[in-house]
Input
Amino acid sequence: MAGDSKMKLYIAGKVGKNSQFGTHYWRDDFVSNLANLSGLSLSHLDPLAYENNREYDPQFVFDKDCWLINQADCVIVYLSDDISVGGSQEMIIAKYLKKPLMGLAPRDGKFNKAEKEHLGITINNYVDPFVYATCDVICDNVAAVAKALQKLPTAKTISIIDEGIKKMDGQL
Output
């Protein structure tokens, strides 16, 4: 990024008006809040901005979201308990495109818990394996995301898949 340019964010996550944020356009307030908390100049590549007055075309939606993620400096995924398949796919697309991926996983939500029972064992400080493996940073609140934006992490890449397979060869 150039010295005075805005950091471009792609915000993945539930888009419905029934999301935690209560509106289809929750990303606007979310990014404004991040800018205030971080002191950074931020813009967001809003995937909904390109869908008004268009006939629904699922290939266009996919292609457009991939293109927007490619333009972003960072992808932030809001890991609500009801995250859509699109949000989880956007996480993998971010890895494919070598973009830093920050997960906002509220504490004691589905993906980030103080405790979780798994196969009869209590796991302390549980983080969902797919969130853990793909996210470069996992935050439990907006202030932590704002702080993490001040120093973008090095992005894990899609090679995490091949590396995981290689680790398992001969172990299972």
In short: The first strand starts at residue 7 and ends at 12.
